[in-house]
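ARCHIVE CARD
Drawer: 12
Card no.: 0347
Subject: one protein chain, sequence and derived structure
Cross-reference: see card 0346
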Amino acid sequence: MEETISLKEIFQTLRKRISLILSITLLAVAVSAVLTYFVMTPKYDASTQILVNQSNTNNASLYQTNAVQTNVQLVNTYSVIINNPTVLNQVIKKLHLNMTADQLKGMLTVNTEQNSQAFTLTAETNSPAQSVAIVNNVATAFRSQVQKVMNVDNVSILSPASYAESSTPVKPKPAINLAIAFVVGLMASVGLAFLLDYLDNTIKTEEDIEQILGLPVLGAISQIKDHHEKDSRSGAHSTQHHHARGGNRVEAK
C-alpha cells in the first residue's frame, strides 16, 4: 500500500521543526557574511575597448573589398594574439610584475560581440590601480605587436581604463552571496527536518497508532501522576504545619 503525505502533514512537520530550520538558515547566512566580508579578497576589474578598423596606410587596398566584414573576422584572430606570451611578457617586464605569462593570462578576459569590429579587454586583480595599469599596457603592447606581425595599423584603443571606473570591487558580491546562503540553508534545513521526521518511528499521538498499527483507538488515559504528587505534597505540608502548631501549644503550657 502506497503512503501519501498530505499538505497538512507537511506543514505540521515544518512547524514542529521550525526552530531547527531557522537555526540552520541563520547559521548559513552568518557563515556566508563572515566569509564575504572578512575572508574573501576583494577583486577589482578594469576594461578597455579596442577597435579593429580599416587601415589608413598603403596596405589599405587589401581591405577595400568588404572591409567591415574583414575587420570583424580579424577580431577573432586578434583576441588570440592579445593573449600571446610575446605580448604579455612585454607587460610583465614593463610593470615589473612577479608572475608568469600564464598567470597574467588568467587575469585577462576578452569579450567579443557578434558582427562587431570592437572587443573589450578586461583585467581583474586585487588592486584597482594594478588592474588599470595591466589592461592599458596589454592593449598598448597588443597594438604594437599587431603592427609588427600583421604589418598593418588597423587597431585603435577607443577608451582606456581609468581608476575612477575601477575603484568599486566586483567580487565578492555580498547581496548575491547572502541570498545564495539563505536559499541553500533553507533547503538543507527543510530536507533535514523531513529526514528526521522520517527516521522518527516513535508513537506520540492517537493518529500515529491508527496509522502504524491500523487499529482504532478506543480511549485514552490522561496522566494523573501530577495530581498524586500534588496531593502528597499538600498532605505533607498540612501535617507538618499541624505538628508545628501542636508543638507550639505544648511549649505554651
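Annotation on reverse: Confidence is low (pLDDT under 50) at residues 57-63, 241-253. The longest strand covers residues 44-52.
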